[in-house]
Amino acid sequence: MLAQLKPSTSFQAFFRYRQVADKILITNFEGNFLLLTQEEFKRYAEGDVEEESELYKRLDAKNFVRKTYRVADAVARMQARKHFLHAGPNLHVMVVTLRCNETCIYCHASRANMDAVHTDMTPEIAEKSVDIALSTTNPFVTIEFQGGEPLVNFEVVKHIIEYAREKNKSLGKNLEFTMVSNLSLMTEEKLQYLLENRVQICTSIDGPEKLHNAQRKLATMDAFQKAVFWIKRINQAYEEMGLDTTLYHCEALMTTTKATLPLWKEIVDTYVNLGCKALFLRPVDPFGFADRTRLKIEYPRSAYLEFYRNAVNYMIELNRQGVEVLERFAGIFLTKILQGQDPNFLDLRSPAGAGVGQLAYSFDGKVFTCDEGRMLYAMGEDTFHLGHVDTHTYRELVGHETVRAMVLASNLDSQPDCVNCAYNPYCGTISATNHKAQGSIFGRMRENNVCAVHKGIQDFLFEKIATADQELLDIFEKWTTIRAREHFVQDSEPANAAS
Ligand code: SF4
Fold first, then answer.
1. Which of 62, 156, 249, 383 has the most crowded CB, counting CB atoms within 10 A?
2. Is 25 in the pocket of ligand 1 (CB under 6 A)?
3. Is 457 in the pocket of ligand 1 (CB under 6 A)?
4. Do 135 and 184 touch, CB atoms closer than 8 A?
């Protein structure tokens, strides 16, 4: 039918379109959308819509009619969607050591064995990293402890927390700490410290016990049991502290490998049984592992999207039965699509967050645009290396020509395919991933794995919206709710931890 259209250019305001199931999705510059029947789309495209018609009212309400286009409404909506611009980096990833006691099949370049003590961050490097992090123009600062395994260098984690809290007394930033840990080296003493100092704890669960222990190897082959023990202990502690456990619980992340794909139901059940309210079905990154490993763990993105649909359809069914569980990609996209807000997920925004939303500090003081850039450096690629905490100022780092180039490259309005894509208002591209996979920070979206994932997920979500009953719309609405976790914002006094 599209080939037979006789488009008029005088009726429509600017729009992009895409076929979704038997409907035509139209989106505009500021991110409004409508799902039209083929017949409605033909009338819209040809300018054959009478002013008294129901279709006209729908188009006009969402700002798709040129004659009545409301610039002020579009500006307000764009401001809400791009609130992160001009703020400066809020996420500061600190790699306190490369040492790790687990060996994960998808992680080689960004870890070292337990005897590699020379990969521990020193207190001096830690202080200089905090000095730069707190120089950001962003009033919100999150310091994220990464590794390696951050619990291996716990003394420096503590030093960073105490130094940053002290320094922030005169700066007054909205300061938060997050730790990404496999939890296998957690002790009650360390946990009490983290709880008292309001550090948010996040771990990895790759799925059921057998899969997790096969992918994340501990010498004792009990990585799953250890992670599960501490997830439950952390959640219990939050409950004892009187915190709302819907909002406050140990977050878990998974990495989807080839072995994960048939286990979509078991994976969702594992998370639900652990009391996790959210799953992030992340595809494997092209970082950190050797090419021979790639053959074992990689998969076509069409297979990933089938896995994603199965898992999310199952999660929707569970929600219909009263189980609260959401998928994070879906939550991020739906917040943009249904609420017109941007949750500022750094890899899924335009421009992306590398250098302007985040900085990564390696154990040795080198500073990178993002954690992916740091991993590429470990693989011999120095494109994303901005400087060093000893020799570079905050302004020199964020004003680096690489940061400027990445802002241009991840602006979807300067990407040849994205500029015409109906998903442009909700999407994002990752320059470091593009560089690794396609040899250019711009990438080529038609053969780009991240684009394929983003496009496939948005196709799925719009198909669901097109046929949704009220109950599903209510579930999606719940998935978009952003509630601030005020407890993790630092104040001058430590919290009372549960004992
Ligand atoms: S990355 Fe792909 S799905 Fe996203 S806007 Fe660009 S072309 Fe569209």
1. 156
2. no
3. no
4. no
As given in the structure block, the two tokens for residue 66 are: 């040129």
Which residue's structure tokens are 């442009």? 424
Strands (E), 42-154: 91-95, 103-104, 140-146
pLDDT band per the 50, 70, 90 thresholds, residue 1: low
- DSSP string computed for 327-340: EHHHHHHHHHHHH-
CB 413 within 8 A of CB 419: yes
User: How close is the Cα of 446 to the center of ligand 1, in Å?
Assistant: 9
CATH number of 87-297+343-412+482-499: 3.20.20.70
The alpha carbon of 458 and the centre of ligand 1 are apart by a number of angstroms equal to 10
Dump pLDDT digits (tens) for 367-381: 999 999 999 998 889
Residue 497 has pLDDT above 80, yes or no: no
Nearest atom of ligand 1 to the alpha carbon of 417: 7
Ligand 1 centroid vs 453 CA: distance in angstroms? 9
Question: What DSSP designation does 309 have?
Answer: H
What are 255-290's pLDDT values in tens digits?
999 999 999 999 999 999 998 999 999 998 877 665
- Which of 55-59, 364-368, 479-483, 486-490 is the least confident region? 479-483
Radius of gyration of the chain measured on its C-alpha atoms: 23
Give the count of beta carbons closer than 10 Å to the beta carbon of residue 218.
17
* Pocket-testing residue among 423, 453, 460, ligand 1, by greatest number of atoms within 8 A of Cβ: 423
Structure tokens at 57: 């009212």
Whether residue 406 has its Cβ less than 6 Å from ligand 1: no
- Domain locations in the chain as residue ranges: 2-81, 87-297+343-412+482-499
Q: Which of 433, 451, 462 to mutate to test the pocket of ligand 1 (most atoms within 8 A of CB)?
A: 451
Task: Quote the pLDDT of residue 496.
Answer: 60
444 to 17, 409, 438: CA distances (angstroms): 20, 11, 7
> What are the residues whose beta carbons fall under 8 Å from the beta carbon of 387, sequence distance 6 or more?
366, 367, 396, 397, 400
Question: Quick one: which of 340, 339, 369, 345 has its CA closest to 278?
Answer: 345
422 CA from centroid of ligand 1 (Å): 8
What does the pLDDT look like over 293-309, one tens digit per residue?
777 888 999 999 999 99
Distance, in Å, from the CA atom of 207 to the CA atom of 76, rounded to the nearest integer, reads 42
Whether residue 426 has its Cβ less than 6 Å from ligand 1: no
36 Cβ below 6 A of ligand 1: no
Residue nearest to atom 7 of ligand 1 (CA): 418
**Considering only CA atoms, which residue is closest to atom 6 of ligand 1?**
418
Token digits of residue 491: 């104040």
